[in-house]
Every structure is written in structure tokens, then in C-alpha cells.
Amino acid sequence: MRSPRRAGLVGVALTAAVALAACSTPTTNGSQPGKASHGTSLTVDLAGYPASLDPGLQYDTDSYSVYRNIFDQLLHRDPRTNKIVPWLATAWKQSNPTTWVFTLRDGVKFSDGTPLTAADAAYSIQRILDPKFASQQNANFSAIASATGSGRTLTIKTKYPSPTLLTYLTTLSIVPMADVKKEGNARFNAHPVGSGPYTFASSIPGSQIVLRRNDSWWGNKPQIKTVTFRAVPAVASRVADLKSGKADLAHALTPDAAGQLKGANNLKVLSAPTERVSYLAFNTIHGGPTDDRTVRKAISLAIDYKSLIDNLERGYGKRVNSVLTPLSEGYPKGLPDYTYDPAQAKKLIRQAGASGRTIVMATSPTYDPQIVQSIQASIKAIGLKVSISNSDQATYLKKVQSPSHNWGSIRFGQWSCACLDADGVAYPLFRSGTIWSSYRNPRFDALVDKARQTLTPATRTGLYAQAYQILSKELPGIGLFQMYSIYGASSRLQWTPDAQQSFFVADMKLGS
Amino acid sequence: VKRGSTVAVGSYLASRLGQALIALLGVTTMVFFALRLSGDPAQLIAPQGASQADIATLRHQLGLDLPVWHQYTDYLSDLVHGNLGYSYVQHEPALDLITQRIPYTVNLALTALVLSVVLGVGAGMIMALNRGRWPERVLMPLVLAGQAMPAFWTGILLILVFSVTFKILPSTGYGGFSSLILPAVTLASLSAATIARITRGAVLEQLARDYVRTARSKGAGTTRLVVRHLARNVSIPILTVVAMEIAHLLGGSVVTELIFAWPGLGQLTVQSVDARDFPLIQAIVLLAAAVYIVVNLLTDIAYAVIDPRISSTGREAGR
Q1: Is A372 in contact with A361 (CB distance < 8 Å)?
Q2: Which of A427, B29, B35, B194 has fewest C-beta within 10 Å?
Q3: How far, in whole angstroms, is CA B183 from its chain's centroid?
Q4: Per-residue confidence band for A32, with pLDDT thresholds at 50, 70 and 90
Q5: pLDDT band per the 50, 70, 90 thresholds, residue A191
Q6: Residues A34-68 as b or e (16 or more Cβ within 10 Å = b)
Q7: Which one of A229, A435, A437, A449 would you mutate to disrupt binding with B, by most B Cβ within 10 Å of its Cβ?
Q8: What residue of A is the nearest CA neighbor of B58?
Q9: A269 with A262: CB under 8 angstroms?
């Protein structure tokens, strides 16, 4: 009847479960620094695990924060002035408007010992342009017609005179041609080999990546010996890691999270203004009320810009007068500031006969709901109705980027071209026919098209001054504020974040 | 064992296998078509400044410009050949990405399961056997709290107490047994509460039965009563709820994994859905469906073992 056999079954099942739990513990390949690192090892919390370590593929913050330390880039920017300065390329000149010749640094070696040549640099560009490689950076380099290298000389030909070529070359990491070809793209992605200040040591996919200092690097010897990048998606957990000493540095804090660090001992907040701008874009083609310039002007007067920065961003923001920041090349001086004048805004809405009409605001959970709701309240206060249409990011993009322009009247977004150039805002956001633009103005189109192929900086700035003047009058979009990158760090860390969110561990020092 | 019953078991297993395959095909088909209605991965993957032409090129490279039926037959034929596809975002085979994560999820799930079964069954028994007395009055609010507290709340609370304040356990990440404790407790608290309630209900129901009174009148003590008489009879409802928890836990627990930065399947699932990484989502769903089917099958077999009255052929076991 009752059976010891069956009681035994339950016992066996439990024992098996415990045993499995114990032995399925995965082992890591390589060293694994456990708790807070001291001396010369640094632990960094990223918001996500890098999508790729192959620098030819992804270009997102989590990925490049890691791989830019493994590889050298063709050019760099001075962290203080943002001017383009030599890195692997020590000199460059233009032999004609579409041909650029770069001279590479002598004696640079990849960490596997093979010398870095111009052929490697040319190959790094060619593979991004190769359609079969499906690189997400293809669009950034699409002006390039060909790249060839021999010895220390790299020659790049562009399809048209391209003023932004050097800008994008600051994001180009050089990979070893021989190793990539031998190993294949998949294995290279898992075990990247570069010439940079750090080498790949080990990884736990989805969890952490360990880099070790490359002692044969050509530059000044970095102080930090080992870096562990950990993927910690929840911002509250990143804060807890800082407070418990598990991490020395945490990426992508929110203004609220930064506030929680203020009182903590041994911790500090590091922040820097970036080229990312929070903005509103209008549908001026099928937007209903927002097809009317007067309504757009009224909405620009309805927003309390100062309060957005002070209350929602807790001061981690700066006012702008377009969707562009002064950090960018071609930034037009003397544009009028946006003003907050709700009384005047109400008057304009009545004048336009738009009182009580409905503004449809398209958004996705990617965008801060607090800001979206605050904008909604501001627009309601001047006599319009606002309905928020919230969909997930994929659906949102499908809607907003559809050539039918039937996505609503207004949307909130955050823009950065990662290029520090006026073109990277004016062209993709407002040039008619581009995926984000719901605006049509032939005069504006002609100006930005011309500036795209103009090499003389003064002439370009002049063209952008006119183009941004048009945007300022017609208001197909409003810049709300310049955004800051916010990091939490141990007070032992000496480092100043820069505008491009470059994350060069070689520039960091840890005190004792 | 009679030959007849072997044949019956064989045909039973064959029919279950057939059902499983149909279920898998149904799930994959549904996910395949639903995903293709839900947005365009090329738009998500392309850099912000990409042109329509860049996105069209990307769409072509990913094979998303083909007619949906064509994509579907390609997918099925790959599947039959054991090829689960290549992640759009991470540029690695979907199967590799999943197998890297399975050990972490299994590790956490089984620890949480053992913890929740021990705590849940124990608490449920104690509550039922001490109905209306102080042990029940102490345990009941705990069970309610366990069921009411969401994982993101429990998790952060545990981190604040044990990692930030007392600094005795690591806050996040994977690093040996100590890092397993907080996520396992977080995950187990919800399951344990559910199991405790089911156990309490099942035991109370049995306590009113004649055989319990008979056993008691024959002088059986509480231990003997529980081990000899109650255990088997309450195990069916408990097994049912535990099986559901197993399948649920093995699918990866999204919230707990996010809070504790645990590199399991739950995190991978969220990432793949966010990025509309079709091959990866399809592979994860296929795996999750297979886990559910296998766990269900094992549960049914366990039912038959524990209670011979439940059997595939519907025979009444004469006892």
C-alpha cells in the first residue's frame, strides 16, 4: 500500500535538483575579480551587455564603451576642445576634394604581434561597407567610394566632397585583417584582437567582460591594470553596486539616481553635457492643427523650459535654441532663444482658430514618460486637447517613419548623431524625404544639401546659419534641452567624462 | 509487469509525442506570424541617421523583404535541419546564445524551486495542522506578504539590507554560491507562498476525511499521520502547482534577472523582444514551449506513479 519506493522517488527528485543546481554552476574562462576592486583594477557597471565586441558591427554606448579600449581609432577628438587630433593617423591631407591621404603611426602592433598597416585600416572600412557584413554603421561611412592602403599610407576616396568624413573616422576602430580573415567574423566577435591599450581577457556572455592592460601598447602606460565591465540593467541595482562597493563606476544614471548618491560617503557623481538633445518634432504635413505654423509657435511658447531642466532633469541639462548644441561643427550663432509665455500662446491658439482641437502625441516607453506628461500638461494649458498615443518602440518607428506621415501631430525624442556636426541634425531630422522628417521646404532642402558637400568650414557655417534660421522661424521642431551624461563613481576615481561619451579607461586613474 | 500494460504505455507515449510536436508547430507558427506584424527589425537596428535606402538594404540582408510565406517555409526547413537562425543584433547563432544562458537560469530556477517547495510545503502543513492557533496566525501574514510583494520590490529590499547595509552578500551579478542567495530567495518567496496556500488547503481537506479520523482513533501521532497517511493524498494538488512553477521558473524570470543582473534566459528574452531579434525570439519561444511540454508530461507520469487510480487507460486500480 504505502510504499517506501515512492517516498524514495520524491527524495531522489529533490536530491537530483540540488545536485543539478550545484553542478550546473558555469565556470568562467579566465580570472574573475569578485568584490570591489582595489589598486589598479576597475569595475564598471554598464546598462546592458555589449551587443558586439567587433567594432565593425554595432555602434551603441554599451558596445563601444568596451571595444574602443581594445582597439585604436584612426583619429581622436581632444576631450576638452572636441577638435579632431591625430591617433593612429599622424597626418592627413587632401589631394583633391574627394581624395584624402592619411599617414599612419609607425611601429604599431596588434596584441597578437602582427604589425598594424594601412592595409588593416582600409580593410576595417571595406568590411563595414560590405553589404554582406550587414554592419549597423554602414550609413555613417556611406560617403566613402573606396579605401586602399599600402605601407603606412591610407587613401580614401569619397563619392562627393564630404565635410564629415574625418568626424566619422574618429569612430573607426582598426581591426587586424589577417586575424579576422583567419578566424572569421563570428570568432573574432567572441575573441577580439586589437592594437589598443587593453586586451580582451575573458567574458561571461550576458554578464561580464574582463579586459587586461596591453603592456606593449604604443601610448602612455595606463594606470589601471584590469577592467571588469558588468551588465546591470536596473538603475537601482547599479546604485546599489556603487553603495555596496561592488562597482567603482556606473554608467547611465538617471537624475533621480544621481540624487541618491549625493549623501553617500566615498561616492561622487560625474557628468558632462553631450551633443544629445531632447526635442519635440511636429508633423507639418498630416499633423492636423500642427500643420499651421502659428499653432507650432504657440506650443513653443507653452513650454516652461527652465522648469523641465530644474525639476525633471534636476539641473542635468542646459537650454538650447535649436535641436543642435554649441559643441557641434557648423553651429549657427545668434539664433533667438525659445521663450515661455503661456498668455501669448493662448492668444495665438485663438487667432489660429485652433481652440479645443486635438493634438495627437506619439511616443514609446523608450522616452521619459515624465517629460511627455509635462509637455502634455503645458499644451493643454493653452487651450488645446492632447491625446497621447503610446506604442512600443518597434511599432512607434514603423508609424513615425512611414512615408504616409500619418503618425499624429507631435512627438518627443532624444537626438544625437554621434558626429558633433550640424549636418547630423538638420539633414536626418528635417530634410524632406528622410525617415524622421515630416517637414517640407525646398529652400531648406537646398541649403542642407549644399552644406553636405561643402568643404570650406566658413561657407558651411554660413549655409547652416541660413538653414537653422528657417527652422527657427518655421518650427518643424523645438529643442527642449541639451542632455548630460551622468555617471556614478567611487571618489577614488580620477576621470573627466567628455561630450562624446568616449569611455577611454586609459584616461582614468584610481587613487588609493 | 504484464505485456499489455507495456503496450499501453508505449502507445500512450507515442500519442503524447505526437501531441507535443503539434503543439510545438502551432506555437512556432503563431509566434512567427505575430512577430512579423509587430514591427520592422531593420528600422530598430539601423543607426538614427540612416536613409530609407539604408534601411531597405538592411531589410534585404536580413531576408525580411521576401514574402512572409517564403520566409516561413525557409524557417521551417532550417528548423528541420536543426538550424535555429542567427541573431540580427548579436551576430551569433541563436542556439549558442541560448545555451550560454541556460546554466544560469537552471541554476537559479532549481535553487528557488527547492527553497520554495521546502518552505511552502512546510509552512502549509504547519498552518493546516495548527489551524486557528498561533503558528497559523504568525505564518499566514507572511504567506500573504510573500504573495503580494512583487519581485522588483522584494529584490531591491533584500539588496538594500544584505548588500548595501550589512555588506554580507553581493548585490548583483553571477559569482558563485553567495551571489545565488538573494535572487533565489526573491524568486522563491512568491512560489513558496503559492505552494503554502495550496498545501494548507489540501491538508485541511484531507483532515476532514474518515481515514484520518480512523488513524487518529487508532492512536497515530502527528508525524505518523503526516508521513504515513496524508503525504500521498495531498501530493497531487501540490505536484500540480509545483509543476507549473517549474515550467515558469525554467522559462527565465525576467524581473528577478534584471534586478540582480543575472545572465539568464529572462534577460535575453527581454533584449530580443525589444530589438525584434526574430530568430532569437523564435528560438527562445520554441525552447520555452518544449520545457512546458516536457514538464507536463513528467507531471502526468508522476501522477500515475503516485496515484494508480489516475492512469492513461482509465482503468480503476483495485485496491
Answers
A1: yes
A2: B29
A3: 15
A4: very low
A5: very high
A6: eebbeeebbbbbbbbbbbbbbbbbbbebbbbbbbb
A7: A435
A8: A134
A9: yes
Q: Which of the residue ranges A127-141, A215-229, B164-178 has the most confident prediction, judged by mean pLDDT?
A: A215-229
Nearest to A435 among B52, B167, B177 (CB): B52
Question: How are beta strands A226-231 and A41-46 bridged, if at all?
Answer: parallel
Residue with cell 537624475: A255
Whole-structure pTM value: 0.88
Our CA-based measurement puts residue B136 at a distance from the nearest CA of chain A, in whole angstroms, of 26
Rounded Cα gap, residues A372 and A369, in angstroms = 5
**Rounded distance, CA A251 to CA A238, Å?**
8
Of A137, A131, A207, the residue nearest A172 (C-alpha): A137
Helix (H) or strand (E) holding A203: strand A198-204
List b or e across B236-269, with b for residues whose CB sees 16 or more CB atoms inside 10 angstroms: eebbebbbbbbbbbbbbbbbbbbbbbbbbbbbbb
Angstrom distance (rounded) from CA A170 to CA A85: 9
Report helix, strand or coil for A385.
Answer: strand
Is A121 in contact with A148 (CB distance < 8 Å)? no
Share of chain A above pLDDT 90, in %: 81
Q: What is the pLDDT along chain B (319 residues), one digit of tens a residue?
A: 456 667 777 888 888 888 889 999 999 999 999 999 888 898 888 877 788 888 888 888 888 999 999 999 999 999 999 899 999 888 889 999 999 999 999 999 999 999 999 999 999 999 999 988 999 999 999 999 888 888 889 999 999 999 999 999 999 998 889 999 999 999 998 889 999 999 999 999 988 888 888 888 888 887 888 877 888 888 888 988 998 888 778 766 889 999 999 999 999 998 899 889 999 999 999 998 998 888 888 888 888 788 777 655 544 443 3
Residue A458 CB partners (closer than 8 Å, separation 6+): none
Read off the pLDDT of residues A387-435 as tens digits, 9 standing for 90 and up: 999 998 888 988 999 899 999 999 999 999 889 999 999 999 999 999 9
First CA to last CA across chain A, in angstroms?
70
Residue of A nearest to B166 (CA): A244
Residue B184 CB-density burial (10 A; 0-12 exposed, 13-18 middle, 19+ buried): buried
| Cross-chain Cβ contact A232/B261 below 8 Å | yes
Gap from B38 CA to chain A (nearest CA, Å): 6
> Environment class of residue A264 by beta-carbon count within 10 Å: exposed (0-12), middle (13-18) or buried (19+)?
middle
Whether residue A240 and residue B174 make contact (CB cut-off 8 A), yes or no, is: no
CB contact B91 to A (< 8 Å) = yes
CB A399 within 8 A of CB A407: yes
Q: What are phi and psi of A175, to 5 degrees?
A: -105, 155
Could you tell me how many CB contacts below 8 A there are between chain A and chain B? 191
B122 in A contact zone (CB under 8 Å) = no
Closest of B186, B133, B138 to residue B158, by C-alpha: B186
Which run of H or E residues covers position A63? Answer: helix A61-70
Could you tell me the three cell numbers for A288? 492636423
Closest CA to A345 of A301, A380, A385, A384: A301
Chain A residue numbers touching B111 (CB-CB < 8 A) = 21
Please state whether beta strands A198-204 and A226-231 pair in parallel, antiparallel, or not at all (unpaired): unpaired
Written as nine digits, the cell of A59 is 555602434
Q: Kindly state the cell numbers that stand for B228.
A: 504515513
Across all residues in chain A, what is the average pLDDT? Answer: 90
